[in-house]
Amino acid sequence: MPKVRHYADLVATLAGLMWLMLYWSISVSLHIGSAEPALAALLLLGSMILVSFVHRPVRVMLGRYHVRKRRTEMWMHILALPLNLAFLLAIGIDHLITPMSGAQKMLLFNVLATASWLVFLVTLLIKLLARALADRRGSSGAEPALSTNSSTNSANATLNDTSNDGNSASGLHRRDADEA
Known about the structure:
mainly alpha; 2 domains; 6 helices
């Protein structure tokens, strides 16, 4: 299960980075007045999507629950939240400070989307750290319990052997196992 989570985190992070590249290429295209950066980003994005649909191992991996869950979380971070915040901030800036052009509004969205993607990345790192600490605590806490249970079980086996005087089938079985 941890390997699937790591794949899910990696896929969501790279997908978010890919979409941010598209967002920023649109801003660069608006700034320089040419559609070439946006078209190059769209070509790269389209080829990645095509590979993910055609290549079966990638398609299977992208269909897993954890990957879909992480990608949904990533979309909430890089699209839904920044889009709403940019809309509200642009309205506030338009009415209170100065009117904004379309390129400035897109730049505001890009800055908020990048900040949200970084928050998503930090969230993933915190989850990874918390999971690693929980696994470390869980494995160190389980060892003493196992050794206590095994010593208790061996003490019970010794009591059973002495109480049965070796005449029971379990006593014979234990004796045979010890001799082997």
